User: Which sequence fits this backbone?
């Protein structure tokens, strides 16, 4: 399952949140931005993603907003009640740099099954700045998902090969992704009721 869907950026202004956290308005031009003592590409990515992660973890409002996003956009797409508490991955893929996310299936890293991923770019993405995903498990027919801010990619990341390549575009990509998991309280209640 692979689907691109549009979401309301007025109600979910995630790009503006990233701009504020990174203190940089032109996210596509982030590769030109100052980065304190970080000089290597890996140090720069670590600096930016650590900043976003800390702001997310310390920001009750942004966590609540993502919870509402999951309720509105993920719930209709999954066969379970999704947990609105998410643990996102923050990503920065600067112009002219190799990927930090090689091709993989999430089952190589996580044990759970029956989950899906939502990938949200906060910048326009194409070619080497976007995510590449195979159409069906084992097909290896990777294709790029060219998207703009306000679109999200929903897919079976556990089973579909996906990842990124060298960013050969004119812009840096800033994105967030997270696994949509079943709500553990609801799952427990359902399991108890079946006994």
Assistant:
């Amino acid at each position: 399952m692979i689907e691109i869907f549009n979401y309301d950026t007025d109600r979910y202004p995630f790009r503006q949140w990233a701009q504020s956290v990174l203190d940089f308005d032109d996210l596509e031009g982030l590769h030109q931005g100052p980065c304190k003592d970080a000089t290597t590409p890996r140090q720069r990515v670590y600096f930016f993603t650590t900043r976003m992660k800390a702001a997310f973890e310390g920001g009750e409002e942004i966590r609540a907003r993502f919870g509402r996003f999951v309720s509105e956009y993920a719930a209709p797409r999954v066969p379970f009640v999704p947990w609105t508490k998410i643990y996102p991955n923050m990503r920065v893929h600067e112009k002219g740099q190799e990927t930090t996310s090689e091709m993989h299936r999430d089952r190589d890293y996580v044990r759970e099954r029956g989950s899906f991923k939502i990938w949200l770019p906060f910048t326009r993405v194409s070619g080497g700045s976007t995510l590449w995903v195979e159409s069906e498990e084992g097909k290896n027919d990777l294709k790029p998902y060219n998207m703009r801010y306000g679109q999200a990619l929903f897919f079976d990341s556990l089973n579909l090969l996906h990842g990124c390549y060298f960013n050969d575009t004119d812009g840096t990509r800033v994105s967030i992704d997270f696994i949509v998991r079943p709500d553990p309280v609801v799952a427990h209640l359902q399991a108890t009721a079946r006994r």
Remarks:
- Residues 139 and 161 are 9 Å apart (CA to CA).
- Residues 41-57 form the longest helix (17 residues).
- The two ends are 31 Å apart (CA to CA).
